[in-house]
Amino acid sequence: MHWDVYQILDAVADGFEAVARQHDLEQAVYGIDALDELGLHPLIRNALLNADFGVWPEQRFPSDRGKKPSRRRRKSEGQRCDIVLTRHPDQPLVDPEAEATLFAPPDSLSLEAAFWLEIKTVSQYTTEGPFAHYGKELLNPVARDIRKLASDRLIFNSALLLVLFNESEETAQHDIAAWEKRSLQKGYPVGAPIVRSFPITDRLGNAHTSIILVPVRRL
After folding, report:
1. Which DSSP category does 193 fall into?
2. From CA 202, how far away is CA 146, in angstroms rounded?
C-alpha cells in the first residue's frame, strides 16, 4: 500500500508551526524547543490526527507480537514503535490474534499496510543552556530504531521522524547534511531525508526548527 511521506511530513510541520504561533501569541516563556522527546509526542500525534490520519501510539512491533508471553512478560510488554498510522481516524490497526475471528473490525488495517514511525529530537540549546552532547546525539542515527524498522518482516512502510532545533537555518542545513553523510557511511538502510523547516522565536538560543522525515528501507 502506497503512503505519501510528504503528506505525513507536512502534517507534522504544519502542526508544529501552529503551536509555535500560539506560543508567540501567548508570549509564553518557553516554546516548543523546550520540550523533550516525550513532550513532543502529543504534538506530533495531534498534528497527524488533525490531518485525518489514524494515530496509534506505542504499538508493539509485529515480530514481537509473535513471541509467546512468558510468566515474566505480559502481553502488554515488548518492543514498541512510537506511532503507527492508519488511513483515517476511525480505522483501527488490526490485532493479529483477532484477525481471523468475529471480533476483528472489518475496516481494520493490517500491520503490513500501516505506516510505522519512530521519533527522535535533538536541540542545540536547552533550558539549561547549550547542549554539550548535541553533535553526538545528532550524528548517531538512532541505529537501533532504524534496524528494528528495517528488519521486521511485516513492516513495509516506515520512517524516522527527526525534529531538530538550531540557532540558524545555515546550521540546520549543515547538520542535516552531516547526518545524512554519516548514515550513508555507516550503511544504514535509509533513503534521502525530506525536510520542512521554519523560524521560531529565539527563547533559548534556537531560532530555527527542521522537521525531517527519513524513509527506512527493508533489509
Report:
1. -
2. 32
